[in-house]
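Field reference: sequence -> structure
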Amino acid sequence: MNRYFYRTILAVIALTMFGAVTAQAQTGTQHTYADETASIQAVRKVQERMRHDMAKMDMSYMMNEPHHVMARAYRQNIETFAITLRDQAQAGRPLSADFARAAVAEINRSFDKLEDHHQEHLKTMSADMRSRMAAMIKEMDMRHSKLEAAIAVLEKDVQGYTLNSEKIATDSAAIIQHLDEMSKMHNGN
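Structure field:
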């Protein structure tokens, strides 16, 4: 990763210097306005391509940052327990209260860990990266709040003396839906 990063930086510097040398050489010779405009546009295209490559590299680094990877693992854990609980609630037999409460406890624990790692991940971002991603971070925080609310509803529904399997299946499906939406937003779909 670092080697690619340094190669990219060196390429940016080389292209910038090449553009400066080209511009300097053109000022010493006779040239037309069209040639100058074409040269400026070519340099801008290269600079834009380099900025795009750098942004992709930033995203690649960010996606593989350890806290981000852990947050994704905890998100998958929440999804696994929510799917398991939903499937058991839809099985057509009485739902074990101990089973449901244990699944919800694990969903809660995983959500807390997801939030911890998400916050730590945000701390690893540079101020520039955070400002460029402010809208995405805000939307992710909103989705986390909705997910937290859905988990709270499920938790309340498994605390009763008798469990309503249909309601618990619906609650679990809502959590799965929130996770799916988060995943689609995260993957850019």
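Note: The longest helix spans residues 33-63.
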